[in-house]
Design a protein that fits this description.
Elements (H helix, E strand, L loop, with lengths): L1 H18 L4 E4 L5 E6 L16 E6 L5 E6 L13 E3 L4 E5 L11 E7 L3
Parallel strand pairs: 1-7
Antiparallel strand pairs: 2-3, 3-6, 4-5, 4-7
């Protein structure tokens, strides 16, 4: 009887993490990329403690080199586009998310496309 109750309590605490708004909006242009949010209270990196620092890890699972760049969302006019970063196939990159964090919504747009496109 205690086991189902403790599982239910654990689920109740885990649900708010799933309901959180994404840190970034992505436009991946058909590329096979995995985006993992770091720097949020529920996540951290093995190499570095990024809790509280908005960051993402991009893993390129496509056969092409990915060129990724952050852009401002339409409602955020202060942020300028960041330099593009190249991510080779089967490689990862960790990037700090530019802009100001505001709870309840994404703070940047990440656009990725095949390099040279």
């Amino acid at each position: 009887m205690h086991r189902p109750l403790s599982a239910l309590i654990s689920l109740a605490f885990a649900l708010p993490a799933f309901a959180q708004e994404p840190l970034v909006v992505t436009r991946l242009n058909g590329m096979n990329l995995e985006i993992e949010e770091l720097g949020v209270p529920e996540a951290s990196s093995d190499d570095v403690d990024l809790r509280g620092v908005p960051a993402i890890k991009i893993t390129n699972r496509s056969p092409e080199v990915a060129s990724c760049q952050f852009h401002a969302l339409p409602e955020e006019t202060v942020m300028t586009a960041t330099p593009a970063m190249s991510i080779s196939p089967n490689e990862q990159a960790v990037a700090r998310v530019p802009g100001k964090y505001s709870s309840g919504g994404p703070i940047a747009l990440l656009v990725c496309q095949p390099e040279g496109a």
